[in-house]
Amino acid sequence: MAKTTEMRLVDLMVLKQDISNVLLYLGKSGNFQFQSSFGEKPDGAASENAESEMFKRLDQARSFLGVGDSDLSLDGAELPKEEDFSGAEKLLQSLSELSKRDVEARDNCKRAEEAYAEAASFSNLKQSFSELDHLSFLNLRVGKINPDVLDELKFAVGARAIIVPLGDDKTRILAASSKKGRFALDTELQRFGFVPMEIPKDFKGIPDDVLESLKKQKDEAKKALDEAAHEKAGFAESHSDKFLRYLASFCLASKIRETESLLESTQLVYRLTGWIPSSACMEMMKDLDAITEDRISIRQYKPEEVPGVLAGHEKVPVKLSHGKFVSAFQRMIFSYGSPLYGTIDPTPFVAFFFTLLFGIMFGDAGQGLVFLLLGILMAKKVIKLGGWNKFAPIFIGIGSASMVMGLLTGEFFANEKILEPFERFVTGLFGSPRNQILPMMPQSDPDSIKRMFMFFGFSIAVGFVINSTGIIINIVNKFLQRQYGKALFGKSGLAGAVFFWHVVVLAVRVAAFHHSPALLDWIVIGASLFFSAFGEPFIRLVDGERPVIENGLFSLVIEAVVELLETIITYLSNSISFLRVGAFALAHAVLGFIILTMSEMVGGAGGFVVTLLGNAIVVVLEGMIVAIQAIRLQYYEFFSKFFNETGREFKPYKF
Fold this sequence. Notes:
Largest sheet: 5 strands, antiparallel
Helix content: 55-70%
Number of helices: 23
């Protein structure tokens, strides 16, 4: 069985002149994790430096030009040289004048548009405002308001006032009420966010020639803004590569400078302590010697030589190493928790069990082909789904498993007739030809009912294998950790395993061979249950912990009774839980039958549409449901056997 990657702790003493190149190498290799996380910056550490300041200026310029950074990568970037500083400064200076013109054009356009809108709002006011305002019976208010609340304002004031929108955009209004109702009007206006405007006393509206002049100014300002935008687009197109190169270089340098300020150091020497995979030790030491021209001190330690690990204060980081297919399932492991260092790596088991469970529950050759093609296109980067592309091997795996199950059940996009020639050929090789190798749809005949119960029995058998694998992993892990008591006793130890396996074997003997339980069976079951329930004192005895009975005899008996019930209920529920695998497989077949029946009832083009929509719904919705169920079975039935303590995930220093 594969174990977690073997790790080493390395202690590096690096001269100040080499620290940047060393950090650059470590960050790009992605194989070095600092022993402890960084805290606050030490006193006197500069919060800003020339590289980070230049990076911020370049990033602001990139944002101003609209140059995208989605393809920006630090993998090929190098630390900036003196000529890079001067080149970046020259580029920013050439952009400065363009930026000023752009800002000026935007301001002019905004002012011209506001002036024209303001004038247009009062173009229909022909009577002198002062004459209206001095009417003894009339109270007028002119100002700005959010047009979205205009109808609510009209409803609120009702018949107490008149609200007249000014201009097409309705952002300005004239409100009129009686002198008696002015206080009520002012209250409502204030409630709806009304902003009063100062109106000259002899103001009678905007003459047409003035309005036309303002419109001309607005058009000219818009034209100037478009010219500035065109010039900016041309500058961005001709300088985007240079911008991104400088941006990556100075971003890399700013990150390294920030790391330097957090390291333990003297005036001349920096110290770096961290974990690396054992397999990378020799290559890393050679590379660091070459980078620093042998001006570096390197010491490495095995985990058992690190005081913090021996004392239990520090956990060794866990790195899992696999091929492309299995590594795609690693996030499923770490989302639940990290295995302990030096224990069995469960990822290969998860990859196999997840693929198997998904295929059984989602058996359709056509729908599986959709997942297979999607996975291939994601792997080839034809379809880009961001971070989901790394899961392309999973889609390929579940697609292949679904296709195999679909060939067995004879389903191709919910149609059981397309694959009939293939099914009859295969079954004919082993007897009389049948339309399906493994019929899933329940029928009224006794053979169909028998097959259905046999399939549910197969589901429980799959669960038995998965549960047993989890127990074996736990037993092996405990032996590897020298926790011999927990390996032998308790419900997830050897005692619990013997109980579980013997009960299953006994059930098969009784059901299939009509055997009666013998005295030996009851002795084995009773003894294994006893050591499972009363496992705690035996664990303490074997592991050398004292006192053996920690909290007294009465407490031990109560805990044992609870543990006894929990052992029986846990193994029973863990086994029965896998009935859902057969249930979902049956539900998938029923859904396919419904889609096929409805498409035949509609017929023609309508039937094709029903088939297309039905299969699309099944692929998306049922695909998600089945995936969730497969994950749930692994989390709650498989992981619960051995994931009783989590480790520390390996998170390397990288850019």
